[in-house]
Amino acid sequence: MLPAKFEILLALLCLALIEAQVVISNGARVNVNLPRAVEPIVVVHGGAGDIPDSRDNGKHRGTKLAVRLGYKKMLAGGNAIDAVEEAVRSMELDENFNAGYGSVLNIDGVVAMDASIMSGGNLNAGCVTLVEDILHPITLARRVMENTNHTFLGGDGAMKFAKAQGIPILTPKGQLATQSAKDALEAFKRDRDMGISTVNAKTETGHNPVDKLYGEPGTVGAVAIDQFGNIAAATSTGGMTGKMVGRIGDSPLIGSGTYADNNSGGVSTTGHGETIMRYNVAQKIVQRIEFLGETAEVATRAVLEAMTDRLMQTAGAITIDAGGNVGFYWTSEKMAWAYQKGDEVHFGIKHGEDYVEPA
Question: From the centroid of its chain, how far is CA 179?
Fold first, then answer.
């Protein structure tokens, strides 16, 4: 029989092993309950809303390219954070999306962008808002996460930090404003001046018949799980056409637009920002996975349908749960999405679509 003190130490050691939830791998904390060989996945969205059919092909091309680049980054030695940043950066370069180059304009004709990124291993996150003349707000958000003691920077402070970090700030100002974004703002102002209500006008419209689309419905986001079970999520947007100066949407808010936790899952949302904020969509999806044991697909559908039923606005989301299951759903007419798993790329934009092509 072991001495009492050794029995106590052995019991404590066993308890620690049973209750341990994470280990350190590749610089991140990972869930020890996951299989040691997790198949990497990258999933992206390119915005949800009443997207014109003429925009479908551009969104297909952009989302497929984004997942391929994110997946390639992860397989080349990167982790889930590297993958989601790379995927979002790709879409920030593409004017088919409302992020980076292609962002819509506020009422003063200025591109003011939001972004957030989160690591599911240690729950670290970086968020930025009211960012101007920076092509990749998602990279600035990652710098906030990794190089400051803070989680969220906005406005002048975010711009000063970007300069200190050596992130390029475009000069002259205004180079991110595309002609289509300028045209959308003119249409918004013209309707407003004619007495047509723009109260419910938004970039990513709902199913309310008074809603009107101004500009590109294309907030972008990415979620990834790497071979160690690390989950990360990222979201980037230009917001909504004609928004008030200083308006902040859901995309940079942890729990609304972005969330990641290795023990449950990762989410990036898109849609009517004010509604997503009020309903805390990303966190609700993750909670259903964690506490109800639902898969990514079931939890995502349940939360979005409940939000739309209660608040009469639409949204979409992409999700990966800790088991490596992919979920995506939207209550709007369309949502551009794609994911890569192994040597296949899946993509679609309308309900019921699931096209597949070799990676």
Answer: 25
